[in-house]
Amino acid sequence: MAHYAYLDENNLVMDVIVGKDESELIDGLDTESYYSKGTNYIVKRTSYNAAKNGFRGNYAGIGFTYLPLEDIFMPPKCHTEAVLNAKSAKWECTNTNHDIKEIPLA
After folding, report:
1. What whole-number distance in Å separates Cα of residue 67 and Cα of residue 26?
2. Is there a domain that residue 15 lies in?
């Protein structure tokens, strides 16, 4: 079992589904291609273990953005001063007047 994120034309996550394991071919297609077939969406695999194994940074959630150059999913920006740290797949901020809130997994 694996999880897949459906991305719109702006790489915004619109839905996340449970699907077949990514090592399986379905009708001769890899799983990302299979699940995007017949839709207007790009489909990318996501993982609950993203923080442990570094796979695409974060588990994708509705409203997250996929950054193709970094190959990571990012939650919505927590506030305007936050700066993307693509290596850790987190938003960072030096403003001590507020806390950066972690987005809980589903």
Report:
1. 26
2. yes
Backbone angles phi, psi at 52, to 5 degrees: -80, -45
Does residue 106 fall inside a structural domain? no
- For the beta carbon of residue 39, count every other beta carbon within 10 angstroms: 11
Range of the domain at 81: 2-92
> Letter for the amino acid at 86?
A
CB atoms within 10 A of CB 91: 19
Tens of pLDDT, residues 43-80: 999 998 876 777 899 999 999 999 999 999 999 987 78
**Cα–Cα distances in Å, from 91 out to 39, 80, 84?**
31, 10, 5
**How many CB atoms sit inside 10 A of residue 105's CB?**
10
Q: Are 101 and 78 in contact (CB under 8 A)?
A: yes
CA proximity to 48, closest of 1, 6, 105: 105
Task: With respect to residue 100, please indicate whether it lies within any of the assigned structural domains.
Answer: no
